[in-house]
Write a structure and sequence with these properties.
The protein is mostly helical. 79% of the residues lie in helices and 0% in strands. It has a single domain, classed as Up-down Bundle (Growth Hormone, Chain: A), CATH 1.20.1250. Helix 9 runs antiparallel to helix 14.
Length: 384
């Protein structure tokens, strides 16, 4: 039996988090490949990514209330395994309808696996710190992904992307089967009555919807980050360099969030995050020269990672059963699921600048929700 806070358990959770959150790393390459290699229009390409993410949301919403009774290791291993098979099949297709079915199947399966992963992290001794650890792992994974996959795509074509996704999911399935941790050394069924007894505090819902809003802005922008750079004439090599820089920057925000856990107020972080995010989107989508585009794009994802790490630790303290954070894929991917197709629709109808205007409105909603999450005196140190 593997404990959550053991070295073996942490490695399994790190691998599972990287596989389940592959969209947070790969979305611009994903949408760019569907448009550039498969010749789908922005709305179709965004729609395929949305199908994956929407299916992950459905899986998370369905499983989160049952978290205490689920066979978590089996769900993680089977979910990632089925997702791997779906991506293998997708690598052999070119038509939109077949791609749509397989994207939905992969999202449903990976979302189920990610839901039990995040619920398990929330039941660890130090959820904020453990979520920061898996966030650091995601940053390392992003560096490896951008170092390997874009050159292979350029050399071998779009099918490489889905083969890479299949490989990531297959590795996660094997690791989950061998080492996915158990909660508190107890059987899931034994923990169910205590975990499911109390209703979630109302404040938790403000946090869930606020993170969903930031996830929407993240996905709406990130999905077209690569495309807007090419449309502005910055060049494929320069835009790829920005993606590599972004992946390197992403090594640091989760680690920084762990160091600052007891030093910075959670309220301050959550109120600053949406403001920074909206400003960066405006720069990315409006920049006509490379330098401001590159600077904003390089740190864009880091804002979401840093803010969400504080939000995760905060929500784990407010709702310790793990049910709310088993819905982490839903709170991130509800927004993320809408993001690619909304962004594609805005780009198709009004141009890339429309994404910046939409981001401003959505981040304002996130700001108002986070303002209601905690009283001014509540800080991370007080709840750790």
């Amino acid at each position: 039996m593997t404990a959550i806070d053991s070295r073996r358990g942490r490695i399994a959770l790190m691998v599972a988090h990287c596989a389940g959150m592959v969209d947070l790393v790969a979305l611009p390459v994903w949408v760019g490949t569907l448009m550039g290699h498969y010749r789908f229009d922005p709305q179709q390409a965004g729609g395929l990514a949305t199908l994956f993410l929407a299916a992950a949301v459905l899986a998370s919403v369905a499983l989160a209330p049952l978290f205490g009774r689920l066979p978590r290791r089996a769900i993680a291993a089977a979910g990632f395994g089925i997702a791997a098979l779906a991506f293998v099949a997708a690598s052999g297709l070119q038509d939109f309808a077949g791609m749509a079915v397989l994207h939905a199947l992969a999202g449903l399966s990976a979302g189920a696996a990610l839901s039990v992963t995040h619920g398990t992290i929330a039941r660890g001794a130090h959820p904020h710190r453990l979520f920061a650890i898996v966030g650091i792992a995601l940053g390392v994974f992003a560096v490896a992904f951008f170092a390997v996959v874009p050159p292979l795509l350029a050399a071998l074509g779009g099918t490489v992307l889905f083969q890479a996704f299949a490989t990531v999911m297959a590795v996660a399935a094997v690791v989950a089967l061998l080492a996915f941790p158990q909660v508190d050394g107890a059987e899931p069924e034994a923990a169910a009555p205590a975990a499911g007894a109390a209703p979630m505090p109302r404040a938790v819902w403000f946090g869930i919807v606020g993170i969903a809003c930031m996830g929407l802005v993240q996905a709406m922008t990130f999905a077209f980050l690569e495309r807007v750079g090419n449309v502005r004439g910055f060049g494929t090599a320069a835009v790829t360099g920005v993606l590599v820089a972004l992946s390197i920057v992403n090594l640091f925000p989760a680690a920084l969030a762990a160091v600052l856990e007891k030093r910075w107020s959670a309220r301050s972080v959550l109120l600053t995050g949406p403001v920074l995010q909206a400003l960066l989107v405006a720069l990315i989508m409006q920049a006509s020269v490379f330098a401001p585009y590159a600077a904003a794009a390089s740190v864009f994802a880091a804002v979401m990672i840093f803010t969400h790490t504080f939000a995760f630790g905060l929500l784990a303290s407010l709702e310790p059963s793990g049910r709310a954070l088993a819905a982490t894929p839903a709170m991130i991917m509800t927004g993320a699921a809408i993001g690619p197709i909304l962004g594609g629709t805005l780009v198709k109808g009004f141009g890339y600048g429309a994404i910046g205007i939409a981001a401003l409105a959505i981040d304002l909603a996130a700001l108002l929700l986070f303002a209601r999450l905690l009283p001014r005196t509540h800080n991370v140190g007080a709840i750790a």
